[in-house]
Amino acid sequence: MFMEAEVKEGEKAPDFELPSTNGSVRLSDFRGKKVVLYFYPKDDTPGCTAEACSFRDNIERVKKLGAVVLGISRDSLKSHENFAKKYGLNFPLLSDEDLKVHRLYGTWKKKKMYGKEYWGTERSTFVIDEDGRIIKAFRGVKVDGHVDQVIEALRG
Which residues touch 81 (CB under 8 Å, ≥6 apart)? Predict the structure, then answer.
């Protein structure tokens, strides 16, 4: 059994490099821009599709605030490519199959459904400033209205 680290607001966002639908992505490459890093459970499931499409539909609002969106799950690159193509996603999806980055951010959690315990991704979003600090951490995200919360956090 392992304890998950849990990054907090005000802390430096842990750097990482992962394969994505736009080639290899390193968080530190975005210094000087704000980053919306969102963790989601699974490609092409109802909640995750609604969340991805909401970011897609609001990408111009995010860009106007000097930010980029990065989606991350444990799905394979192939799965991400299919998901992005199917829904016309206009931001990179990062593949964290070994859960290294999930663990860095404390989003791999014990969950409960129908009385059964299992490990899974806690839907979470981290808003990171131009210097690589976490300015807002949303955990246990509810999809409805979430992009508006992220926009507010980006506005500061």
Answer: 21
The verdict on whether 48 is a catalytic residue reads yes
Contacts 24+ apart (CB under 8 A), 107-114: 107/4, 107/39, 107/139, 108/4, 109/4
Domain boundaries, the chain: 17-155
Of 27, 48, 127, 154, which one is the catalytic site residue?
48
Percent of the chain whose predicted confidence (pLDDT) is above 90: 92
Mean pLDDT of 66-75: 98
Backbone φ and ψ for 153, nearest 5 degrees, come out as -65, -40
Q: Would you place residue 1 in the very low, low, confident or very high pLDDT band (cuts 50, 70, 90)?
A: very low
pTM over 0.70: yes
- Domain 17-155 is found in CATH 3.40.50.150: no
